[in-house]
Amino acid sequence: MTDQQPIAVLGGGSFGTAIANLLAENGHTARLWMRNAEQAETMRRERRNPRYLKGVTVLPGVQPVTDLEQTLADCSLIFVALPSSALRQALRPYAEHLAGKALVSTTKGIEADSFLLMSQILQQVAPDARVGVLSGPNLAREVAEHALTATVVASDDEALCREVQAVLHGRTFRVYASRDRFGVELGGALKNVYAIIAGMAAALGMGENTRSMLITRALAEMTRFAVRMGANPMTFLGLAGVGDLIVTCTSSKSRNFQVGHALGEGLSLSEAVERLGGETAEGVNTLRVLKYKAEELQVYMPLVAGLHAILFEGRTLEQVIEILMRGEPKTDVDFISTDGF
Ligand SMILES: NC(=O)C1=CN([C@@H]2O[C@H](COP(=O)(O)OP(=O)(O)OC[C@H]3O[C@@H](n4cnc5c(N)ncnc54)[C@H](O)[C@@H]3O)[C@@H](O)[C@H]2O)C=CC1
Ligand SMILES: O=C(CO)COP(=O)(O)O
């Protein structure tokens, strides 16, 4: 990448806009690709995102664009901030334009049928691309409003990690590098499920003891699962593991937490998702596939099983709490074995 070359951000939602602004703040030109021409035009004219991050000014260095082919041709570093349900379909027609490019996924989801993470899909779609992920406790609004924030870029391509650090690292945004691409990415996807549970607990007026128990046992079961899948357990003690788990399980700015909260208020799943007004909450789809993957791999994930039972198997919250709390006494701390909550 030369100093003059623009950097692409694909997806003009909350996170894409926040990342594009960070790049612009650091003196780069960010080509923010959006599929909706009207919204791109509004952003160009009014320097704001018409749908997401209300009140945030979009900096002059951010260029909203709608021509994906041209954007890919012009940029060698490309951040992907599309929902997981859209990523493969959106990029597959442009596969030939991705060869040799550095693709960094910021998407925190899992593909339904394949159980592939987004960087694995990028690798499939563009086998000759350089691939990395960006993940961590990074609520888009707080990033955009300059809350002091840290994140992780992960790839076995060290040069890619350094490039991402160079362009994103700034006054309020610190970027750490990791080689555990799989663990960093999996952490970002798994924590969304627990944020839904935490939102439910908050709506039901459960206290801080409960929240702490939830977060801690969530960390145990997501680590257990990730290690079984081949991730480094230490990653889960870092920003992309427990860091992201804490922020999404404690903040009402998290859309997954909001879905859980709405469920706790008594809304149905479809009503809870609808209340987000089209914003992405990845945790619902992740829950569907995770439950079956955990069973297939025989990984003990009682919180995942419990939430699945409530949302998709007609169990009540009371029944699930009874099962979770009244089970036979277990040992604490043993994260990796099947003991525990
Ligand atoms: N919002 C946040 O705080 C963070 C979000 N993420 C992740 O980033 C990803 C995107 O999230 P957000 O930006 O928050 O979502 P969002 O719901 O705010 O925006 C999604 C954007 O993708 C666009 N989009 C949807 N389907 C598309 C398609 N088929 N083709 C082209 N564009 C399409 C939408 O028009 C919208 O502009 C998610 O996986 C999320 O987990 C990661 C870190 C923080
Ligand atoms: O991933 C996030 C913060 O790190 C954002 O979480 P939500 O997608 O739940 O808003």
What does this structure look like?
It is a single chain. With 341 residues, the protein is α/β, with parallel strands linked by helices. The chain folds into two domains: 7-179, Rossmann fold (3-Layer(aba) Sandwich), CATH 3.40.50.720; 189-326, N-(1-d-carboxylethyl)-l-norvaline Dehydrogenase, domain 2 (Orthogonal Bundle), CATH 1.10.1040.10. Helices cover 50% and strands 11% of the residues. It has 15 helices and eight strands. It has helices at residues 14-25, 37-46, 68-74, 84-91, 118-125, 140-144, 158-168, 181-203, 208-229, 239-250, 255-264, 269-274, 283-297, 302-312, 317-326, and strands at 7-10, 30-33, 62-65, 77-80, 102-105, 130-135, 149-154, 173-178. β7 (149-154), α7 and β8 (173-178) form a beta-alpha-beta unit. α8 (181-203) packs antiparallel against α9. The mean pLDDT is 95. It binds 1,4-dihydronicotinamide adenine dinucleotide and 1,3-dihydroxyacetonephosphate. The site of 1,4-dihydronicotinamide adenine dinucleotide has 24 residues, from α1 and α4. It catalyses: sn-glycerol 3-phosphate + NADP(+) = dihydroxyacetone phosphate + NADPH + H(+); sn-glycerol 3-phosphate + NAD(+) = dihydroxyacetone phosphate + NADH + H(+). It is an enzyme of class 1 (oxidoreductase). It comes from Stutzerimonas azotifigens. It is found in: Cytoplasm.
